[in-house]
Amino acid sequence: MSKPAYKRVLLKLSGEALMGDDPYGINRATIERMVADVAEVAKLGVELAIVIGGGNIFRGVAPGAQGMDRATADYMGMLATVMNALALADAMRHVGITARVMSAIGIEQVVEPYVRPKALQYLEEGKVVVFAAGTGNPFFTTDTAAALRGSEISAEIVLKATKVDGVYTADPKKDPHATRFETITFDEAIAKHLQVMDATAFALCRDQKLPIKVFSIVKPGALMRVVMGEDEGTLVHV
Ligand SMILES: Nc1ncnc2c1ncn2[C@@H]1O[C@H](COP(=O)(O)OP(=O)(O)OP(=O)(O)O)[C@@H](O)[C@H]1O
Ligand SMILES: O=c1ccn([C@@H]2O[C@H](COP(=O)(O)O)[C@@H](O)[C@H]2O)c(=O)[nH]1
């Protein structure tokens, strides 16, 4: 059997994808399917760190956040990612994967704080590390957290698992004529204002020469194909 293309990866899992077909929250069947995909890859011996988004919970409470100051709303968003991280770690435990959740904001009674050497130790021990609470700072996103943590742990690639199967000329959910790039440079993605990831995340990965693969987490087997280095999704590169 061929070997995985990477030894250590940072997987950014879409919070919104966790909803499945529900209007918000965590869909049980969806999280179980995602975890099954993750388990397959972990069993190959690939060191896996995960950053999880919060869109499935945060967009559900967003109407109530209207009129709030931005930083407060952003802290709510970060807490939403902690809930997703706990659910993800628990679902992994059910299939025999040891996961450790580390939070960028201090909530020690719930999860341990992010400490870089400890995260590296867990990865070397074969545990899956789930980074919760994004960067710990308002005005950022979990895509930027993926770029940041991916750089910190010397991941070989950031795998952005989302609801679309790559980077398109425009949002494919809004523009039926949008076409998919097989590869695109960071500079092009930033210059074209492609909204699939925020510019801060693109710029950090570009400066750290950390490639990004954007692919669909909804498509069966796509994560495995990406990890095996097969043709899947869009590669964003320097
Ligand atoms: N040029 C583009 N190419 C591909 N997708 C795009 C583009 N522009 C906008 N999008 C949208 O970006 C979305 C992915 O980014 P977004 O940050 O919203 O979601 P996510 O990271 O998957 O979710 P969450 O924030 O919940 O973690 C896609 O679902 C797609 O609809
Ligand atoms: O570093 C961060 C990460 C996230 N936030 C807030 O959380 C929500 C949810 O994250 P998504 O990346 O959209 O899934 C985000 O909208 C921010 O409000 C943050 O402030 N800082």
From TrEMBL:
Primary site of residence: cytoplasm
Keywords for this protein: ATP-binding, Cytoplasm, Kinase, Nucleotide-binding, Pyrimidine biosynthesis, Transferase
Residues bound to ATP: 12-15, 55, 59, 162, 168, 171
Catalysed conversion reaction: UMP + ATP = UDP + ADP
Protein's cellular compartments: Cytoplasm
Keyword ATP-binding on entry: yes
GO molecular function: UMP kinase activity
Regulation: Inhibited by UTP.
EC number: 2.7.4.22
A Pfam entry, by short name: AA_kinase
Pathway named in the protein's UniProt entry: Pyrimidine metabolism; CTP biosynthesis via de novo pathway; UDP from UMP (UMPK route): step 1/1
Chain residues that bind UMP: 54, 74, 135-142
Similarity comment text for this entry: Belongs to the UMP kinase family.
Function according to Swiss-Prot or TrEMBL: Catalyzes the reversible phosphorylation of UMP to UDP.
Assembly behavior: Homohexamer.
Entry protein name: Uridylate kinase
